[in-house]
């Protein structure tokens, strides 16, 4: 009798999808509380494009990533453009990258395996509800093939086999991990419908930008919809991308392939990861920031994702603030020797040190003062206007610059120097981002920077 009831329920479900005259609808069966086992396999190969002395050098690269996680749906998009949200327990994270003769394995902290995914028309986020991820950790996990986005590849209207439609630009941007999509002829097509599944394909080209950098992308993929569960359970995509070089990253000429499998789970223990009491699962600003820790683990900070670390040695770390492909400002962070607290310089001494360091580039002090740090550090801030030489159209010219210097010292006499530089015409865009970065800085207890 039970098998008869199941057969009748299946018949009712399939009838709801059938409009008539070989026209079908494809409702989204995802519900709050659903638990899925998701596996993602991606591989990539091609060339990194490095700019050197005005010429582009090609360096062979390749890589692969395998992810497996349990995903519990927290919110379903009631309309195509509303927010969806899930919590994920990552069971397997494996990634390898080859660049030239070097083999790399991105680091991932197993204790950060509980993550939240959130997508809407404006952004797609993956973050730890416990503390910010590093850029490398995020890049390892937030790869092509976001399972929370797959529902949005379903057509909004009934279709006949052979009919096509264009996916939203915002969906393509989020799924392909780019900022914006411009010109596009990408389309999806209903290829086949059987009693149990429907098959679709996606093809086309598009122009995109990421951090303001132009990119050309070609897509070819397939995906499958299970008519019984009313869910996409398999998605495969090949993507060829040619991306220009940029101030914070090399260009690419690569082909990436990704395959996503989704297996719905059942039972009260399908998602058995314990979620700590009081854990916030909303994308708060402090959680979607990125975490940076120095190579010697003597200090760390969190930062807006628009800050990119572009250079790292024991004596110097360089960050650049990039908006729409343009470098807005640069920050140089250097450890200084530890000194007894009673030998820390005064603000006046620090002002004079800054003046001497700039030499003939110095014009005038803009401001100077002591800044209260949340970690009870002593902080001096000195802003200076001046000019620096720059290459402009094969000539050398003086460019107005504002420098913002910080000296940070704790009660043990550990010291760190921050030097921000920004073209005078870009100071409004930098705003208080320098204060925010310094405010997020912390010495690591038990270590001594520069000792």
Secondary structure topology:
Layout: H1 2-17, E1 18-20, E2 23-24, E3 35-52, E4 55-75, E5 84-99, E6 102-104, E7 114-119, E8 124-127, E9 133-134, H2 135-141, E10 159-160, E11 164-165, H3 169-175, E12 180-184, E13 187-193, E14 197-210, E15 213-226, E16 231-243, E17 251-265, H4 285-288, E18 290-293, E19 299-303, E20 307-313, E21 316-323, E22 326-336, H5 347-358, E23 362-372, E24 378-392, E25 395-409, E26 415-423, H6 427-430, H7 433-439, E27 442-443
Parallel strand pairs: 9-18
Antiparallel strand pairs: 1-2, 2-10, 3-4, 3-17, 4-5, 5-6, 5-7, 7-8, 11-13, 12-14, 13-14, 14-15, 15-16, 16-17, 18-19, 19-27, 20-21, 21-22, 22-26, 23-24, 24-25, 25-26
Written account of the structure:
This protein has 451 residues and is mainly beta. Strands 3, 4, 5, 6, 7, 8, 11, 12, 13, 14, 15, 16 and 17 form a 13-stranded antiparallel sheet that branches. A seven-stranded antiparallel sheet has the order 20-21-22-26-25-24-23. The protein contains seven helices and 27 strands.
Describe the structure concisely.
This protein has 451 residues and is mainly beta. It has 7 helices and 27 strands.
Helix vs. strand class? mainly beta
Give the N-terminus to C-terminus distance in angstroms: 78 Å
Which word captures the global form?
A: elongated
- Mean of residue pLDDT? 89
Supply the CATH class of the largest domain: Mainly Beta
Distinct helical segment count: 7
- What kind of sheet is the major sheet? 13 strands, antiparallel
Structural domain tally = 2
Helix content: 10-25%
CATH fold title of the largest domain: Lipovitellin-phosvitin complex, beta-sheet shell regions
Low-confidence stretches: 447-451
Radius of gyration (CA) equals 26 Å
Number of strands: 27
* CATH structural architecture of the largest domain: Roll
Beta-strand proportion:
over 45%
């Amino acid at each position: 009798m039970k098998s008869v009831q199941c057969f009748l329920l299946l018949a009712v479900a399939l009838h709801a999808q059938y409009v008539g005259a070989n026209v079908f609808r494809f409702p989204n069966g995802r519900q709050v509380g659903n638990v899925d086992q998701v596996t993602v396999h991606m591989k990539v190969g091609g060339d990194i494009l490095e700019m050197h002395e005005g010429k582009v050098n090609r360096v062979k690269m390749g890589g692969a990533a395998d992810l497996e996680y349990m995903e519990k749906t927290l919110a379903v998009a009631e309309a195509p453009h509303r927010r969806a949200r899930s919590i994920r327990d990552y069971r397997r994270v494996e990634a390898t990258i080859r660049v030239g003769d070097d083999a790399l394995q991105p680091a991932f902290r197993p204790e950060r395996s509980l993550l939240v995914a959130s997508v809407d028309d404006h952004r797609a986020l993956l973050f730890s509800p416990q503390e910010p991820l590093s850029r490398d950790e995020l890049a390892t996990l937030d790869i092509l093939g976001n399972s929370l986005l797959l529902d949005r590849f379903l057509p909004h209207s009934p279709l006949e086999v052979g009919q096509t439609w264009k996916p939203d630009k915002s969906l393509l941007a989020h799924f392909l991990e780019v900022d914006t999509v411009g010109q596009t002829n990408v389309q999806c097509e209903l290829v086949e419908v059987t009693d149990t599944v429907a098959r679709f394909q996606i093809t086309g080209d598009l122009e995109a930008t990421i951090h303001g950098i132009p990119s050309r992308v070609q897509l070819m993929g397939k995906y499958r919809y299970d008519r019984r569960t009313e869910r996409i359970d398999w998605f495969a995509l090949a993507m060829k991308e040619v991306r220009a070089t940029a101030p914070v990253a090399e260009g690419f000429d690569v082909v990436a392939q990704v395959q996503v499998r989704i297996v719905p789970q059942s039972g009260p223990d399908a998602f058995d990861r314990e979620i700590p009491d009081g854990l916030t699962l909303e994308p708060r600003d402090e959680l979607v920031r990125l975490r940076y820790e120095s190579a010697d683990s003597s200090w760390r900070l969190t930062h807006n994702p628009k800050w990119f670390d572009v250079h790292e040695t024991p004596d110097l770390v360089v960050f650049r603030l990039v908006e729409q492909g343009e470098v807005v400002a640069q920050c140089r962070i250097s450890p200084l020797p530890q000194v007894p607290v009673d030998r820390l310089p005064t603000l006046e001494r620090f002002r004079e040190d800054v003046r001497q360091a700039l030499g003939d580039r110095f014009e005038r002090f803009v401001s100077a003062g002591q800044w209260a740090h949340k970690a009870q550090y002593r902080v001096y801030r000195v802003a200076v206007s001046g000019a620096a030489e720059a290459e402009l159209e094969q000539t050398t010219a003086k460019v107005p610059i504002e420098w913002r210097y910080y000296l940070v010292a704790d009660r043990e006499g550990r010291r760190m120097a921050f030097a921000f530089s920004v073209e005078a015409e870009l100071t409004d865009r930098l705003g208080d981002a320098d204060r925010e970065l310094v405010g997020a800085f912390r010495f690591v207890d038990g270590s001594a920077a520069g000792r």
